[in-house]
């Protein structure tokens, strides 16, 4: 009787352990795939973090754009709504090439003061004036272009303005339609194509336009 | 009934007219656009799915242990990039300086950064200066107490003065505050006489700080302290 009990206990333990191992193995496969993707991402980030430039990282799960340097998050930009069309290579780095806005801000020229006269007095009482750039001069509707045919279109979200909100909605839908057609075209042409359509708060949209340096790297990440 | 189009058929002995109602026309157009939209979305969805499947198919099967080991190595390497002492982060969009250690903000101050405007030398149109605060990663190269400003050419041109031939005529005292931190290429973090302009983008590229904030930043940093500007 004692022997049978022992055998039963061993059998139950064996079944339990084997089940547990099977479950663990299943989880392991998923984990390994996760680690593999994370490694690709980390390798890319390590490579671009070595440069003395700030870089952008788009988290498609948390809907955030991070401004980073050396792996440090310098600032977070919140995306209200986002849609991605085309290939989204996690871990591939892209290089920022240009920005395009309907009303892009122009640099202003400083007008030098008039030369001093013989008595040493300045004929102009006004100091050298320049209309400086301000964050409020930055556009909220624009497209950021990267290499490998990736672009991010930024559309602002207007609060308490039905007319602008309606216009924005139409614009968003038109951009989406155009991008969808382009996706099909590029699919048959077998050329790379990625379009990221975002809606952001006006302040964040302006700050992103302002802060993005030329030739900055860009990566797409998944937080979890 | 309102007609969108009247169709008239003339035979030899008969004359018949058909009326196409407006609501039928609108209805058909709507139906066509809905069908087209669904078809387009269907094609896009198919392409996206195919892209995702291809990405998974291309995945290499590599030894699990190696993958996990490599993962921890990479995380360690990335964490080594984070400065282990104080560092400075400057947000030029908000005109705010953060003195940080790890992920913690030790001190926060309002600054003035580059105006983004430009100046052309009236005597030589090829000489042009753009007054932006540089972006990227820098390090403090020099710490100066009681700094003097060595005025560059643009400062004289902007004020409508002749550029002096004697180097010592370029010195101006008391305009940079009590301290200055050089970050390279002639750019400094320094004090200002124009404290009411703090928070605005008005400088020629340097970062201006108020007196008390400048003192805090000066004391908390050393040569080599990292400065991140974006």
Layout of secondary structure:
The complex is a heterodimer of chains A (224) and B (230).
Chain A: H1 2-49, E1 55-59, E2 64-69, E3 72-86, E4 93-101, E5 142-146, E6 150-156, H2 162-189, E7 194-200, H3 202-211, E8 217-221
Parallel strand pairs in A: 1-8, 6-7
Antiparallel strand pairs in A: 1-2, 2-3, 3-7, 4-5, 4-8, 5-6
Chain B: E1 3-10, E2 15-21, H1 22-57, H2 64-81, E3 87-91, E4 96-101, E5 104-114, E6 118-121, E7 124-130, E8 136-139, E9 142-145, E10 148-150, H3 153-158, E11 171-173, E12 179-184, E13 187-190, E14 201-203, E15 207-209, H4 211-220, E16 226-229
Parallel strand pairs in B: 3-16, 5-14, 13-15
Antiparallel strand pairs in B: 1-2, 3-4, 4-5, 5-15, 6-7, 8-16, 9-12, 10-11, 12-13
Q: Identify low-pLDDT runs of chain A.
A: 17-26, 117-130
Computed CA radius of gyration of chain B, to the nearest angstrom: 34 Å
Strand content of chain A: 25-35%
- Given the helix and strand composition of chain B, which structural class is it? alpha+beta
**Helix content bin of chain A:** 25-40%
Alpha-carbon Rg of chain A, integer: 27 Å
What order do the strands of the largest sheet of chain A run in, or round the barrel if closed? 1-2-3-7-6-5-4-8
How many strands in all of chain A?
8
Outline of chain A, from the CA principal axes?
A: globular
- Given as residue ranges, the uncertain stretches of chain B (5+ residues, pLDDT < 50) are none
Largest interface: A-B, 56 and 55 residues
The overall strand count of chain B is: 16
Number of helices of chain B: 4
Beta-strand fraction estimate of chain B: 35-45%
Q: What value does the average pLDDT of chain A take?
A: 80
Main sheet of chain B? Answer: 10 strands, mixed
Quick rundown:
Chain A has 224 residues and is an alpha+beta fold. In chain A, 38% of the residues lie in helices and 26% in strands. Chain A contains 3 helices and 8 strands, in the order αββββββαβαβ.
Task: Describe this protein's structure.
The complex is a heterodimer of chains A (224) and B (230). With 224 residues, chain A is α+β, with helices and mostly antiparallel strands. Chain A contains 3 helices and 8 strands, in the order αββββββαβαβ. Chain A has helices at 2-49, 162-189, 202-211; strands at residues 55-59, 64-69, 72-86, 93-101, 142-146, 150-156, 194-200, 217-221. An 8-stranded mixed β-barrel of chain A has the order 1-2-3-7-6-5-4-8. In chain A, strand 6 (150-156), helix 2 and strand 7 (194-200) form a beta-alpha-beta unit. Chain A is globular and about 110 Å long. Chain B is of the alpha+beta class. In chain B, strands 3, 4, 5, 8, 9, 12, 13, 14, 15 and 16 form a 10-stranded mixed beta sheet that branches. In chain B, a hairpin with a 2-residue loop joins strand 12 (179-184) and strand 13. The relative contact order of chain B is 0.15. Chains A and B meet through helix 1, strand 3, helix 2 and helix 3 of A and helix 1, helix 2, strand 6 and strand 8 of B.
């Amino acid at each position: 009787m004692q022997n049978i009990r022992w055998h039963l206990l061993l059998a139950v333990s064996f079944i339990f352990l084997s089940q547990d191992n099977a479950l663990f193995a299943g989880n392991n496969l998923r984990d390994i795939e996760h680690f593999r993707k994370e490694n690709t991402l980390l390798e890319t980030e390590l490579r671009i973090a070595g440069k003395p430039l700030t870089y952008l990282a788009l988290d498609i799960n948390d809907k955030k754009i991070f401004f980073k340097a050396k792996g440090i998050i310098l600032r977070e930009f919140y995306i209200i709504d986002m849609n991605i069309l085309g290939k989204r290579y996690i871990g591939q780095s892209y290089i920022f090439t240009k920005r395009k806005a309907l009303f892009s801000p122009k640099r202003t020229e400083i007008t030098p003061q008039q030369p001093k006269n013989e008595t040493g007095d300045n004929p102009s009482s006004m100091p050298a004036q320049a209309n400086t750039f301000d964050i409020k001069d930055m556009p909220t509707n624009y497209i950021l272009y990267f290499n490998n045919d990736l672009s991010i279109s930024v559309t602002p979200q207007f609060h308490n303005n039905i007319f602008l909100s309606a216009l924005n909605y139409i614009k968003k839908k038109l951009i989406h339609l155009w991008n969808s057609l382009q996706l099909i075209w590029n699919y048959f042409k077998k050329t790379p194509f990625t379009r990221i359509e975002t809606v952001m708060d006006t302040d964040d949209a302006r700050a992103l336009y302002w802060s993005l340096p030329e030739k900055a790297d860009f990566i797409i990440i998944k937080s979890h | 009934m309102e007609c969108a189009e009247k169709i008239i058929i003339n035979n030899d002995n008969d004359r018949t007219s058909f009326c196409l109602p407006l609501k039928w026309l609108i209805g058909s157009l709507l139906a066509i656009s809905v069908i087209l939209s669904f078809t387009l979305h269907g094609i896009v969805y198919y392409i996206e799915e195919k892209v995702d499947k291809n990405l998974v198919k291309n995945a290499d099967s590599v030894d699990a242990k190696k993958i996990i080991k490599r993962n921890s190595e990479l995380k360690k390497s990335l964490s080594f990039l984070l400065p282990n002492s104080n560092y400075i982060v400057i947000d030029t969009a908000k005109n705010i300086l953060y003195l940080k250690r790890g992920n913690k903000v030790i001190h926060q101050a309002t600054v003035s950064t580059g105006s983004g405007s430009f100046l052309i030398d009236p005597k030589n149109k090829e000489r042009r200066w753009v007054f932006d605060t540089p972006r990227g990663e820098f390090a403090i190269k020099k710490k100066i107490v009681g700094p003097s400003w060595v005025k560059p050419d643009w400062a004289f041109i902007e004020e409508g003065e002749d550029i002096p031939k004697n180097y010592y005529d370029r010195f101006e005292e008391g305009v940079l505050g009590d301290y200055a931190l050089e970050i390279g290429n002639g750019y400094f973090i320094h004090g200002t006489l124009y404290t009411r302009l703090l928070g605005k983008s008005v400088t020629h590229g340097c970062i201006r700080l108020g007196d008390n904030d400048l003192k805090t930043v000066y004391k908390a940093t050393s040569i080599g302290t990292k400065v991140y500007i974006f």
